[in-house]
Design a protein that fits this description.
Blueprint (H helix, E strand, L loop, with lengths): L15 E3 H8 L3 H10 L6 E3 L2 E5 H13 L13
Antiparallel strand pairs: 1-3, 2-3
Helix pairs in contact: 1-2
């Protein structure tokens, strides 16, 4: 399923994306998402069969939370830090 005219993302019918697609959706690198997961600062993810998946609804909520409570210490999507 494609979710945007500008991004060629694959989203499973249940709304989950792999790390590569989730990173593209957020506008950051896959490695950034992995780093955030290690630090516990990024969006919630699920392990399914040993693979990491992010649900679009969780990503959208996480984006909203970042916008609602800005912090100079919180990583922002797309800055790669």
């Amino acid at each position: 399923m494609l979710i945007s005219n500008h991004l060629n993302l694959f989203v499973f019918p249940d709304g989950r994306m792999d790390r590569k697609n989730a990173a593209q959706y957020l506008g950051c690198a896959s490695k950034t998402l992995a780093d955030w997961a290690t630090k516990g600062t990024g969006p919630e993810y699920r392990l399914v069969g040993g693979r990491v998946f992010y649900f679009k609804s969780v990503l959208d909520a996480w984006i909203g939370a970042q916008s609602a409570s800005p912090s100079s210490h919180r990583p922002r999507p797309g800055n790669g830090r």
